[in-house]
Amino acid sequence: MANAHDFAFTAIDGAPLPLADLKGKAVLVVNTASRCGLTPQYEGLEALHARYRDQGLVVLGVPCNQFAGQEPGSEAEIAQFCATRFAVDFPLTAKTEVKDAGRHPFYAWAEGALGEDAIPVWNFHKILIGRDGEALAAFNPRVEPLDASLVSAIEAALA
Prior knowledge:
Elements: E1 8-10, E2 16-18, E3 26-32, H1 41-52, E4 57-63, H2 75-86, H3 105-114, E5 126-129, E6 135-139, H4 148-158
């Protein structure tokens, strides 16, 4: 069976972003939006990234406009918003579909690995990938980035 390292996204600047480049790191994949009530989670995601980056965590933001059109901007606008409003330093992909027929293949794989919990129901849904590329857990959008359940799962993935 495939693992996360078999997939690639396009980075927000248009460059290839193969997950194989992240082998050996734990990755928290989060579909994001700039105009959502949950948008302040960027702050917590950046805090997670800063706290655990040196231990091997990569937060990967996946901007998505599929939930109430809350990410309508261009990639350049999204990148600028994240940098100026939240000082986001973690990688972002180009705008990506995360649900339904046109979804990125990574999300189909994650659903196969984790079941319905891996299907994003709203912005800021989180999927944790282990250092070996295996899908470890999915977290509902309402689970804040610094929530104890998510932090302990990240720490276990990094151990």
